Structure formats: structure tokens, C-alpha cells
Amino acid sequence: MRLLLRLFPAHWRERYGEEFAALLKDQPRPHRHWLNVVRCLIAAHVDGRNPPATDSTEGGGKGVLVALGLLGLATLAFAAVFVVDASYTALTRVPELLEAMILILPLALVAAVVRAFRRDADQPPRAALPSVAAETFLLAVLGVILVATLRPQLGFFEQSPFELSPWIELRPFHDLLAASTEASRSEAVAIIAGNLVLFTLFGFALALRRGRPGLALFAAIIVGTAIALEVGQAALGTGRPSDVTAVVVRVVGGSLGYVLWRLPQKVAQASGTART
Amino acid sequence: MGRPAGTFLSDGSLLVLIALATGPKHGYAIQTDIREFSAVELGPGTLYVILPRLERDGLIEPLPAEGRRRPYRITGSGRKLLHAELNQAGSLCKVGLRRLEEAEA
């Protein structure tokens, strides 16, 4: 029976493990119920894809922590860019991202609210709030990524087509390593930093939205999106190079986002076990 | 499926909500209560399939643990849903019994 209890998902054991073990102990003949416990085990794994919303106080606390963490992350990322990038090219990218956010955020909010109402008709609205927030966040990040990556490059239409290089760059970090001028080096750094930050946010938002994503599915989504964006850039004729560097940086960013989402939980789990 | 609103409770969920209607109870108390009023044996595993789902749907809420046991309490929306569900079951009973009587008469 103890072995069976170990097979429950971690979040389930954390929340219900103790009281469930107590209930089993209360049964006159606990071992008679093993098949019934297996049924519960299967349900816990199936239901685990939509884990119960944590109570509002806990959720609020976590939400604030997440927001602070993201703010800190963004600050660190920009600080890092300024250290590396003496000419502050990255700064010129900020209005571009803000513009994308202003465009995307209301759309994401509307889409998330509509979806939440359609899906959770029998759920009190307050219980749906964390999932709506997570969904809005994910849609917003995805929208900003699409706008920032796929819209035509500034000044693209003034260029004659003959001035454009073919622009499929398969050598990783070639733009950065082969940059001859300070300006082109800064431009390469800004592109790398932008992709890293956006995909860290994307990975984080994806993990947050899915609750407890399977790693294989998570990796497939991140890698798929990273490659699809480069293919999209070429197909839409945006004037941006299709570059293997961007794919590598995005996958690193996405993984970083997952780790940032998972790490606080690991730490909380470890300290929780230490206390009992 | 097109079930009318307010009728999505399973039999087990209905029994648990009825057990909690008289006040907060922990797992074992819910089991014994259900056995007494309905003669249904609800296994511990079945109970812990139902409790997390009811909690997720906001129909019951957990109270602070007493030792290793945790009592649960029915919420306002749980009470409302139970009311609707029992009313519907009641009118079904009436129709069914009347038809049986008519057929036997």
C-alpha cells in the first residue's frame, strides 16, 4: 500500500497524501481497498493535468512572487545587455517591444477571458482567475514574439532587393563573431538578448499555463516554435535573416524559463520536507 | 450531451455533499455517515477521487487539518447545487412513482 502511495503525482501527495494515508489507516481492513486505491491513483494522474486551483491567499502570494521574479529577470537581462553592449543598441529595441505589447495585451486579455468563460461555466469566476492570468500572460508573450520576429525589418522596403543577402545563416553565432564594426556587433548582441529574454518568458509562461507540462511536449513546443519562426521569417520575406543562432538562443531561453518556473517549487518542496 | 444546468454531479459526489450538509467532516466520518444513511460503501480511493474534484469545482473547501485528518466543509455554491440536484431527483421520483401506480391500477 505504501508503494502505491508513492506512485501518486507529487503535487497530489503534497496536498492529499497525509490525510489519505490517515483515512487508509482508519479502515478496518486497509489492504482490502488496494484496487480502490489504484482507481484513485489513475484519477489523480488524469485529473493532475488540471490541478485544483490553490486557495486564493496562497495563489495571491505566489502571483506576487512570480511577478517580482519576472521583473527581476527583465532587469538583470537588460543590465547584462548594457554591460556587454557599450553602444546601447538594445535600448533602441525597447520601444519596438513596448509597441508590440500595447498592441497584443488587450487582444490576449479578451481571448483569455472568453476562453475562461466558455470552459469553466460551472466554476466560480474567482477560481478561474489564476488560469485566466496564466493564459493572458502566455498569449501576450507569444503575441509579442510573433510581432517582434515576423514583422518586416525597419527600412526593409526602402532597400532594393538586390542589396539583400540570401540570408540563411547556418553558422551559429557567426553574426556576432564575424562582426567587423561596433554597430553590427551591437546589433547581433541585441538580437541574441532579445530572443533570449522573449523565449525565457515564453518558456515560463508555457510551464505556468500548463501547470505541470510533460518535458517532451514542452521541449517539442519550444523547439518547434523556435524553428517555425525562422522558417516564417524566410517565407514571409521579412528581410530578416534565417539564422541558426536565433534557434539555439531561443531553445536555451525556453529551457531557462522552465527552470525558473520549476526551481522555486523544488526549493519550497525541499524546505517543506525539512520542516516535517 | 446537453444535460440541463445543475445536473453534473455523480452519485458519489451527491452522497458526499449530502454527508457534508450537516457540518464539516473528515474522510472517515464522511464514509461512516454515507454508510448509515444510504448503505453505500464508498471506498477510500473513491472518496479521494471525489473530494479533490469537488474542491476544484469550489463546491467544498478544506479546513485546517486536525492531526493527520483534514475536515471538509460544503461551500455556498455546493449547497445551492445540492439543492437543485435534490429537487430534480425529487420530481423524478414523483413522476416515476405516479407512473408505476397508474400502470398497476
Structure description:
The complex is a heterodimer of chains A (276) and B (105). Chain A has helices spanning 2-6, 10-26, 34-47, 56-84, 89-119, 125-150, 174-177, 182-210, 215-235, 244-275, and strands at residues 168-169, 242-243. Chain A has 276 residues and is mostly helical. Chain A has a two-stranded parallel sheet. The longest helix of chain A is centred in the last third of the chain and has 32 residues, at 244-275. Chain B has 105 residues and is mostly helical. Helix content of chain B is 61%, strand content 6%. Chain B contains four helices and two strands, in the order H-H-H-E-E-H. Chain B is elongated. Mean pLDDT of chain B is 89; it is low at 1-7. Classes of the chains: A mainly alpha (276), B mainly alpha (105).
Give short descriptive properties of this protein.
heterodimer; A: about 280 residues; mainly alpha; two-stranded parallel sheet; about 0% strand; elongated; B: about 100 residues; two-stranded antiparallel ribbon; 2 strands; about 5% strand
